[in-house]
Design a protein that fits this description.
- It comes from Polaribacter pacificus.
- It holds the Pfam family DUF4113.
- It contains 15 helices and 13 strands.
- It has a 5-stranded mixed β-sheet. Strands 9, 10, 11, 12 and 13 form a 5-stranded antiparallel β-sheet that branches. Strands 3-2-4 form a 3-stranded mixed β-sheet.
- A hairpin with a 6-residue loop joins strand 2 and strand 3.
- The chain is an alpha+beta fold.
- The chain is globular and about 65 Å long.
Length: 419
């Protein structure tokens, strides 16, 4: 059996732990630079504030309904997530951290009759030790544990936040209840294709002819069908997987029409990508750079462009990647355009210690020791004390976070004072 533990309204719940006045109130959390709504409490969802709503368009709506708007506080959310996952490790040694607020637990060999009690103990301990409410779904496969979790979340009074699919009768009833669009792994496009076959619920999907499904869809959908039938096909990913691409993209605090400011931003984004590459011991084959004007300002000249640079050898050097990124942005920059957004993406990632060598061209060997020294100093002082010459040494990149709560658990200055 597998358990899926999901933190309820995680971002809003983290804020409520340290600010009890938010309990029972509608809460919305914004994306980077206070752009749009990315998370909400149940109260805000009930008011039908849409996900992804640009806050500058919905500000008056939020004010009218008393919705508390907060900037995203990722240091706080990341630390609270680590605490929750640490507690879950006490309940199973095989845990897959699926996202910042979700984890699968392998409960193979556990007493099946006692799983509900065990899950309730899980919920209680997490709530007592962190203040984060959770729901637990348990089923014979990962997909069914997801379905069970949705039932636990939908009917909290009847289930006390825990639901176990442990019989054929419960499995069929659950699949007939859950709509296809709410099934794990069914995207909007897939939902439309399946709708033409008359599929409305997970049960309809599970009844499709296996050979037809295999012929018309990918192996992923076939595995999902098996999982919904109670046959495990999706294995636990116990080791932390490395990212296939790494990106740093931002909306500027205001628009830029001069190339020098944009080059400085691109160099900073490239350095950020390079640091993330070195952190996961990867090197990249390509760097992609994009620029975009403000699409909300229709009366202004609009321009979106991107370009890719391919390296002759994989690299993780900030010097090489930022140099290529700056050259790339020079080639797509257009005079007279007010740019609002830019980004750098590195891809074609390979392990730094194990990749194909190029006999004629290779990274300057001095870069490796230089990058090690920079990472060491920046890590020790927790800030960018060493920067590249292309970056503005006086400028500190800050997101617009006008509604940011304190970093209660990761900064000594922000620890709550009890009076």
């Amino acid at each position: 059996m597998y358990a899926l533990v999901d933190c309820n309204n995680f971002y809003a719940s983290c804020e409520r732990v340290f600010n009890p006045s938010l309990q029972g109130k509608p809460v919305a959390v914004l994306s980077n630079n206070d752009g749009c709504v990315i998370a909400m409490s149940d109260e805000a969802k009930a008011l039908q504030l849409p996900f992804g709503a640009p806050i500058f368009k919905w500000e008056s709506f939020c004010k009218m309904h008393g919705i508390e708007i907060l900037s995203s506080n990722y240091p706080l959310y990341g630390d609270m997530s680590a605490r929750v996952m640490k507690i879950l490790e006490q309940f199973s040694k095989d845990i897959e951290v699926y996202s910042i607020d979700e984890a699968f637990l392998d409960l193979k060999g556990f007493d099946q009759a006692a799983l509900t009690k065990y899950a309730l103990e899980m919920r209680t301990r997490i709530l007592q030790w962190t203040g984060i409410p959770t729901c637990v779904g348990i089923g014979p496969t990962k997909a069914l544990s997801k379905v069970a979790n949705k039932i636990a979340r939908k009917f909290p009074k009847q289930t006390q936040g825990v639901y176990v699919i442990d019989s054929e009768e419960k499995r069929v009833k659950a699949l007939k209840w859950i709509l296809l669009k709410d099934v794990w792994g069914i995207g909007r496009r897939l939902e439309k294709r399946l709708a033409s076959k008359g599929c409305k619920t997970a049960f309809d999907f599970a009844q499709l002819d296996e050979h037809w499904l295999r012929k018309n869809f990918s192996i992923t959908e076939w595995k999902l069908q098996k999982e919904l039938a109670g046959i495990p096909k999706i294995e636990m990913e116990l080791a932390q997987s490395t990212k296939k691409t790494i990106a740093t993209t931002r909306s500027f605090e205001h628009t830029f029409s001069d190339l020098e400011n944009i080059k400085e931003r691109i160099a900073t984004f490239a350095v950020s990508c390079s640091e993330k590459l070195r952190k996961q011991h990867s090197s990249c084959h390509m760097v992609l750079v994009f620029l975009s004007s403000n699409r909300h300002q229709k009366e202004e000249v609009q321009h979106q462009a991107s370009t890719t640079v391919v390296f002759p050898y994989p690299t993780d050097s900030s010097l090489s990647i930022s140099h290529a990124a700056v050259q790339a942005v020079e080639s797509i920059f257009r005079e007279g355009v007010e740019y609002k957004r830019a980004g750098v993406l590195v891809t074609g990632l390979v392990p730094t210690a194990n990749h194909q060598l190029n006999f004629f061209e290779c990274e300057n060997p001095k870069h490796k020791s230089l990058m090690n020294a920079i990472d060491s100093l920046n890590g020790r002082y927790k800030t960018d004390v060493i920067k590249l010459g292309r970056q503005d040494l006086q400028r500190t990149w800050k997101m617009r976070q006008e509604r940011l709560s304190p970093k209660f658990t990761t900064n000594f200055k922000d620890i709550i004072v009890v009076k």
